[in-house]
Design brief:
Elements lengths: L15 H12 L3 H4 L1 H8 L3 H25 L6 H8 L2 H30 L7 H18 L1 H28 L13 H12 L8 H4 L7 H30 L2 H4 L5 H46 L18 H16 L3 H4 L2 H23 L14 H14 L4 H23 L1 H28 L9 H26 L7
Helix pairs in contact: 1-8, 1-11, 1-13, 3-9, 4-9, 4-11, 4-16, 4-17, 5-6, 5-16, 6-7, 6-13, 6-14, 6-16, 6-18, 7-8, 7-13, 7-14, 8-11, 8-13, 13-14, 16-17, 16-18, 18-19, 19-20
Length: 494
């Protein structure tokens, strides 16, 4: 069986360098500049071990991305893989979380950019974040080639500054020998892994843009695995260099440990350099996340889950400009809210669920479509994808309980959105009308029982009973009228 080819107006413009920088830039975001302090408080210098283990977990799943991306090089990333393997609700749920996670990720990166530059320039954080989203929405509308070029420039500069920081840290005189310690024991290391895993997220942006990658059979797996390896190498070196300058107990309370360490070691020049690096990291993530969310929305629209308007391709730039604009509007709203820091934790939940589903998709497709053309095959199958599933889901145990609650809410919303799409607007309205009518009748009966005294409310004053009676009466009338209107509706189809 031949590998599936994308039959759309999207153009294949990304080469190996552009695709690799897209993956590195998607993961090297503002989080690594602001999260290492808290993680060091959990794991001590054993944060090095936590980062290496996170990198290995990430590499397991990136192998699955590489195989599926080379075999099914269509827009949509995780959603496209789950659709090919399972279809139906499971694939929609994958795309749903992929879309929402990238929106949150882009919003958080925009806010991170605003906070980082505030170290040097006083700024209005929400306004700066909104402007950042608008600018990169425009870049994405201009075309994926523009995204690729900007990524090469930004990520190249970012890596240069980080390598200079590493070199400075490794050559800084240190009278005390480095010792690996974990004040919180193994549990502290695992908690740090669950917290810091987000710094590896974003490299799968290559899979999301795979319909625009040249020679996908070779370029996609190479770019994905190169990105994963670069991240696995550079993060521990950054952390080791930081610990050579500042001990973990001195950075656990710092808002930006890397900037703090650079300032101690290199003065104001180091501070400015790391602020520039953090700024580039944040902007790079905004860039790739906006691109990723628009391609997922495009794929969901292509399969009829979202309005067909999202399928429109710009006549000049060959990009899904409507999907870019609509996704960017939601991202800008998220970036401007005061609760974005909490809501942003949903990125962890969504991406980890996506990792598990990608590995499951690989296993199912290996069994059901053994003849599918696979230019790259995951090594040590099936142990690699199984390890990816187990280790990814294991991290969910140690994620903040609020994140799990938010994930449940988002799952319920996904079920509702899928149900509306499957049954159609009219039938959903009729079903909702039936529920409303039933509740109205029940409330009316309850009102009658209370008003006649058949159901006495012991210990409640007569005035309060009267108030309750009229509230229930009003509610029953509204519910019955709404139910009748919805049940008898014969228009406004979806």
């Amino acid at each position: 069986m031949k590998s599936v080819k994308e039959k759309t107006g999207l153009k294949r413009e990304l080469g190996l360098l552009h695709a690799t920088m897209l993956g590195i830039g998607g993961a090297l975001e503002a989080g690594v500049f602001v999260m290492l302090g808290y993680a060091a408080g959990l794991a001590g210098t054993a944060l090095l071990v936590a980062l290496i283990l996170c990198g290995i977990i990430n590499f397991f799943t990136m192998c699955s991305y590489a195989e599926l991306g080379s075999a099914i090089p269509k827009a949509g990333g995780e959603y496209t893989f789950a659709k090919a393997a399972y279809g139906g609700f499971l694939s929609f749920l994958t795309g749903w979380f992929e879309l929402i996670s990238n929106m949150f990720y882009a919003a958080l990166s925009a806010v991170g950019f605003a906070y980082i530059i505030s170290y040097l320039i006083p700024t209005n954080v929400p306004l700066t974040a909104i402007i950042t989203v608008i600018v990169f929405a425009f870049i994405n509308i201009r075309g994926v080639e523009e995204v690729g070029r900007s990524q090469v420039l930004m990520v190249g500069t970012l890596l240069s500054i980080l390598i200079a920081f590493i070199f400075n840290g490794l050559t800084t005189p240190n009278t005390e020998a480095f010792q690996l310690s974990a004040p919180g024991g193994p549990l502290g290391v695992i908690q740090a892994m669950a917290y810091i895993f987000v710094v590896y997220l974003g490299a799968e942006a290559i899979a999301v843009a795979q319909a625009e990658v040249k020679n996908p059979g070779k370029t996609i797996p190479r770019a994905i695995l190169l990105s994963a390896i670069v991240l696995l190498v550079i993060y521990p070196f950054i952390t080791y260099a930081m610990f050579r300058i500042v001990p973990p107990e001195a950075i656990s309370g710092q808002s930006s440990p890397l900037i703090y360490a650079a300032q101690l070691s290199m003065g104001d020049l180091g501070k400015i350099a790391l602020v520039i690096a953090g700024t580039i990291a944040a902007l790079s993530s905004v860039n790739t996340s906006i691109m990723a969310q628009s391609r997922v929305a495009y794929a969901l629209s292509r399969d009829g889950y979202f309005p067909k308007a999202l399928l429109r391709i710009h006549p000049k730039f060959n990009t899904p400009h409507v999907a870019v604009v609509i996704g960017s509007v939601f991202t800008a709203v998220l970036a401007a809210t005061g609760v974005i820091n909490f809501v942003g934790y949903a990125t962890d939940f969504g991406f980890i669920i996506g990792f598990a589903l990608v590995n499951l998709s690989l296993i199912k497709l290996r069994k059901e479509k053994p003849l599918l053309d696979r230019p790259f095959k995951t090594p040590f199958y099936p142990f690699t994808p199984i390890a990816g599933i187990v280790t990814s889901l294991f991290l969910l145990i140690f994620i903040d309980p609020g994140v799990l609650s938010l994930g449940i809410v988002l799952s319920v919303l996904a079920v509702l959105a899928y149900y509306i799409r499957m049954v159609g607007y009219l039938r959903f309205r009729v079903a909702f009308g039936g529920i409303s009518l039933s509740l109205g009748v029940f409330t009316a009966v309850l009102t009658y029982l209370i008003g006649t005294g058949i159901m006495p409310l012991n210990g409640v004053s007569p005035t309060t009973i009267t108030v309750i009676f009229f509230i229930l009466l009003f509610a029953s009338i509204i519910q019955i009228v709404a139910g009748i209107l919805n049940v008898t509706s014969k228009s406004h189809t979806f």
